[in-house]
Model the fold of this input.
Amino acid sequence: MLQERIPDPSKLVEPDRVRKEVYTDAQLFDLEMARIHETVWIYVGHESQVPRSGDYYTAQVGRQPMILVRGSDGKVNVLYNRCPHRGNMICGDTKGNTGEFFRCSYHAWTFQHDGRLKNIPMMESGYQGTRLERANARDNPDCNMKRAARVESYRGFVFASLAKDGPTLKEFLGPAIVAFDDMCDRAPDGEVEIVPNCFRVIQHSNWKLFMENQIDALHPSVTHQSTGRAAHEVEKQLAKKAKKGEVPLSYHMLSAFATVTIDKWDNFQTINYPYGHCILTGYMGLRPQDPDTLAYDKIMIKKYGKQRFEEIIGVNIHHVLVYPGLSVQSPLQQLRAVRPLGVDRTLTEIWHFRLKGAPEAIYRRSLAYYNLVNSPATMINADDLENFWKCHQGLSTDGGDWVSFARHHGRDVEKNGVVESGPNMGTSEAPMRNQMKAWARYMSAAAGATR
Ligand code: FES
Ligand SMILES: [Fe+2]
Done:
């Protein structure tokens, strides 16, 4: 029994280190799914994934398979993917269009897009006098597909919480909401559109290793050094022959992993918020003066005016982490959603977005970053995945009991609950400390008792 072995999981976390069981204990994983992922706001999908009535997309929230579906009233619903009759999954496919209603493939019960029962075949003859008789069935929650307790959308990004009480989405996101504003504001039309479909990667490691790595400014110039150097060599050779601005920007996306050395990463800043969210500042020199960028700038200035344009384009963000399941690189319209499958299995969905109203070349840039840095085919992602697997393997041994987050511990600057890494300490492990602080709060025996 977990309760006997670990009466209070929050005790596994110290300010600068964490016990290895936090990553490897299967029962602890179940508890964190219940207390964290199935309680807080989790990103389900983007409204543009389901543009028409009946369009649906499935996604995992904690351990619960959910359906994002557009109703005929235009509203987006999030439902448990489960038939109330005998439990059959309603949608076996990842995505599709269900038509005017859902129809269970087992015994043909049908449901509206908001989950309410539409019909049970031979309802009168089969169920009269039972708890499911016609008079009651449509009002009976036992006959409806269950809805997520709360659903909210911000600028097209749909989140669900499976707990009926808790902060609103805006309260939960706090300043991390900038991830979505920054992404959408960069579109001349003020909106983004998801690019169907995504890469899906299953990594053989705990979900927290992925989340920690997203804002680990210490690792890129080590883990990705060989890829960065190779790209930098080619970039230099091309630069010798090409006129200024003619070396494809995609080389820079990779070479930055070698040219932005550890000391340069220290110039950036991590800003850590309650609930475990974090912003890493610093934009990887991706505001070039090539013709494509200049054409985009012109459209944006026409739309927003010079001053607002400079504000939009000057937002200093490299990465936003929305704990516990989302990593957003808003300047390049990249989003990765974490779907934990088990203590040592984690699915990541890797998405990218199109800025509405922007020239095609700007979309191509986002696509290039998606393919070169975030896709499973690139060496960048592969190098990270190897580390995740090796970390999980190492943590599963008896070779040690602790994971250290001591880098620059004690030098963080805290103001009103917001923790910034100290000056010139961008490689601080403050984001990991902050995530674990949030984890401990969610997981504490006291928090469990009040649920
Ligand atoms: S399980 Fe769905 S109709 Fe029977
Ligand atoms: Fe990495």
